[in-house]
Amino acid sequence: MDLAESTVNNHINPPWLWRLIATGLSFLLFGVGGLILRLVVFPLQSLLPGDALRQRLRARKTVNRMFWLFVQFMYRSGVLTYQVEGVERLGRPGQLIIANHPSLIDVVVLIALIRDANCVVKQSLWDNPFTRGPIRAAQYISNNGSAEMLDEAAGALQQGQTLIIFPEGTRTTPGQAPQFHRGAAAIALRGAQLVTPVVISVTPTTLTKAEPWYRIPSRRFHFHLRVGDDIDPQTFADRGSLPIASRQLNDHLHRHYIKELAIDEPTAA
């Protein structure tokens, strides 16, 4: 079954104990999979012919496929259902994908949807033994807050890569509106051909910043990803200096997410 398809079946809810076990198995599978990629798969791939670009493409395709299988495991084991709208508009050259960050698996689902995507990830993941292999092999960008990070992200977009970024920098606190840092808007103005907002909602909330993995909800959760209309960053770049344009674009994105997440609220209630 393609991840891009909607998979909604709220009539079947596996028992709580089974979902707890399946959630634990999901985390175990993710960790072991990351180690296998780091210690076995990517070293073997490095022996294959091809330049640095070819190696990067292989690594990203591998991560994309492994994340797809991981989401399928969570779905088929009864941990979650999911719905994706507008996936065909993801993965275009020079596209900056902006997403809110309600749960731990947001980046996993997005990368599973896009075969060759770059991503700005937390610095701590670069040093994590379970995640650093895929992150470094795929040449994702470390969010260390430096000016060099902004240059690297803008440069990736200028090269025609698709870039995923979470402007909050960390997972949203449940019950609070997302707060975007201005760095994503600055990157968009410096390198993006287009900006595409992606609204993510998780119902009931789970795998948030405030919750351990074993505190699972009373029913399997539903992951809903909705791709919004494209934004031309040039319309903001023409309004003045980079700091002014960044603030206006950031404010525009913030208002968009407040509005779209409010639409999802009745469903989440």
Automatic annotation (TrEMBL):
The keyword Transmembrane helix applies. The chain crosses the membrane at residues 20-44, 65-84. GO terms for molecular function: 1-acylglycerol-3-phosphate O-acyltransferase activity. It holds the Pfam family Acyltransferase. The keyword Transmembrane applies. PANTHER family: 1-ACYL-SN-GLYCEROL-3-PHOSPHATE ACYLTRANSFERASE, PHOSPHOLIPID_GLYCEROL ACYLTRANSFERASE DOMAIN-CONTAINING PROTEIN. This is Acyltransferase. One of its GO terms (biological process) is phosphatidic acid biosynthetic process. CDD domains: LPLAT_AGPAT-like. Pathway: Lipid metabolism. Keywords: Acyltransferase, Membrane, Transferase, Transmembrane, Transmembrane helix. Residues 95-203 form the Phospholipid/glycerol acyltransferase domain. It comes from Pseudomonas saudiphocaensis.
